[in-house]
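Hi Y.,

Following your request, here is the sequence exactly as I used it, all 943 residues.
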Amino acid sequence: MAPPLSRRSLLQAAALAGTTSAVSLAATGRASAAVEAPSAAAAAAAAPAAWTVQPFALGDVALRPGIFATKRQLMLDHGRGYDVNRLLQVFRANAGLATGGAVAPGGWEGLDGEANGNLRGHYTGHFLSMLSQAYASTGDQLYADKIATMVGALDQVREALGRDPRILSVSGRFGTAQENVRGSYQYVDLPSAVLGGASAITLSAWVKPTHNADWTRVFDFGTNTTRYLYLAARNAGGVPRFAITTGGPGGEQGLNGTAALPLNRWSHLAVTIGGGTGTLYVNGTAVATNTSMTLNPAALGTLTNNWLGRSNFSGDPVFAGAFDEFNVWSRALTAAEITALQSNRASATSAGRGNLASYDFSETAGGTFADASGRGLTATLRRTWGGPSHPGFLAAYPETQFIELESMTSGDYTRVWAPYYTAHKILKGLLDAHLATDDARALDLASGMCDWMYSRLSKLPDATLQRMWGIFSSGEFGGIVETIVDLHTITGKAEHLALARLFDLDRLIDACAANTDILDGLHANQHIPIFTGYVRLYDATGEARYLTAAKNFWGMVVPHRMYGMGGTSTGEFWKARGVVAGTISDTNAETCCAHNLLKLSRMLFFHDQDPKYMDYYERALYNQVLGSKQDKADAEKPLTTYFIGLKPGHVRDYTPKQGTTCCEGTGLESATKYQDSVYFRKADGSALYVNLYSPSTLTWSEKGVTVTQTTDFPREQGSTLTIGGGSASFELKLRVPSWAAGGFKVTVNGSAVSGTPSAGSYVTVSRTWRAGDAVRVTLPFRLRVEKALDDPSLQTLFYGPINLVGRNSATDYLQLGLYRNAALSGDLLPSLTPVTGKPLHYTLNGTEFAPFFEGTEDPTHAYFRRSEPRVVFGNSDSGVANPAKSDGTTLLDEIWAGAPFGDKDALVSRVRSTVTAWVAAGLLSQSDGATVVRTAEQATYVP
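Below is the corresponding structure, written out as tokens. Let me know if you'd prefer a different format.
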């Protein structure tokens, strides 16, 4: 029976626990929400039965000074200082709410970012998760306050999206004005009688543009893109343009201004048509006249679309800015009358109010504008995408991307960019916020999002879903399945579990369950987080194919598509299995991939305590993930990588693309949860797993003890664990890394623990622990190489768990030899020279090698070309060329494959036997063989 949990642990366990709800299976095999789900309390009571080990909450593990704490502090400071109203800007704008002058972050989180800003909202979700993790880890109220601000604002956004738009009143030219916030998709809809069939006309408006997009309309009256008249604040040349036509763009009769309208300042625009002459006025001055204007409103007839701020051309942007007084007269005003409008409302001039329409935008509430012309032509504020959003919908853009995805057959991120991926980030941020702060609003928002998704997706045929989820980029949905299942454990809604199953990508699941590798050509990060969700679906349903598929998938990536530092993908995609050297480029190892592979490895370990999962976790965490964060403070950006190129001389870019990318989002999260897998506990409380050697303190409240790790690992080759608190009986399981091939030792209170630890396993120490007990773990490092699977001569250096990279501006692979002073143990480190005062830094052939985890902007060489041209032992050069077999294996490779050697005699014996075999095979001459043996006998070796 699992030990009791505290209230906060209960809430956090809810997101980790999975319960098997009673659900029925429809004919398609998908879950349908047919029966009552269990209560939230029941769902939150226990972790999934399938988890034989469980994690601790972030707040239970405190980081102590070390490389993780230093990196984390940079991100904590960034989170403390960043104004979250900037993140909320795109959400508030989409809902037509005041943005308070906040400036959106830009990049992918702004309207001007890549693919028209179609991914905006994702980064806000990441940031909310980061704040939640920061608060859970530190208890600093400032993070909780920021969370509350964001959740409160998103609650207001959802409410606004779920109703008709309302007037956003701001200071106008004379009184009040109506603001169309950029990104709101709002416009003013006028009745069809507004132009009155007039043969002469004046249209007058005060506008205050806030953005310089071309072809935004002040007004556009038309039926389609053939018959219309419009006034654009900017044409393609950046100046105002009026046009009227009955034959589309090619038949336009127009008037062009001479200068751009200033931003954030009021400008008056007027157009007059009468007697075949049209005139465009800007701020009272006639800037264009056309004496051959044969068209007028009467020629257009009755028009269907009569809009302020919106174009009849669907690709044109909506006007961003404010409208003040708008008047329409059935005559051409004189120049003097136009001049008078510059300093007075129309009603105070000789022209009077427009007799066809007159709106002064004095309203401060509601969604309509009164017409003061006497014709009663009430105008209505509307959104381009129609009526209110469906219940529960929450995003920084309209529902249109979700709708269009359902009919797409191929990806086009300029139209639809992964809307369910973005929904996942927001959903996860809200769930994390609820778990960290108990904010019921966050839970309600998250639950509402899932209700909305279920109402939409459950109506689609299975074939449509399969097509959608298989579309590159547009159909990407990230880790949404995991988060939905986590939410289901709290809400207990059967619809939520049914929703999670609607994201089944059967082709992928079935192939991986059958251990058929179909990853070649797939987008890596589109697929990695899917499998973490499928493991959670296994937890919730017991359906074995989910777990089997996830395990097999992991094995297709690690090690077959993995680079030394733990990353995967090139240009975001996977290539053929086993191709590593053939994929080296400037766009390797998308950082999101490492983030999500860590999550999957962790999740699989909960089910199967195979040490390979934690070996990978250590590799990727201590190298790519740490190295993806620059060692520098910045208030504006998180300074994390997108790609980490492995091409020789690559310089890491910590401000990638346009900013606020997916990898900067996962970077926010990675840097605030470094401690999440240092310790796990067995589900029945009988054992504590120490997975990582990291300075930290665990508070295991159920046992009434603390465990403090004191270490400077990886700069120190060992760690001391000290028990505090009371006494408790449990097994202490200490991970023996796969690289710890020899010398791994454990002592308890100074006494050695018996047994011979095996690399890639766990050592178990079972006893009743008491306060003051000290466990010392010794983990000797050795320098070794790892070879690219498809080119053994292309190698990367590791010292213990740490990948060492050369700092050199050369753009060709460095040619390096390592056997010349190799130790009897097989350690290659003696061939390198330590750099004084810089732990884990070494030089070789004039190049400095440094830990991958250091976040610098030095040009680096992660891989080098191995070159051992002559046989050398203990720095003694035999002068004999180092021969090689047809597969590339050299004589020295075969000799040193026998390491470690107990003493010099053992090494020399290996040399003799190997030389004898190579001479017999005709790979080495008798005389050269004798020289090699003699050199080995005369050389002096490091132990």
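The radius of gyration is 34 Å.

Thanks again,
Q.
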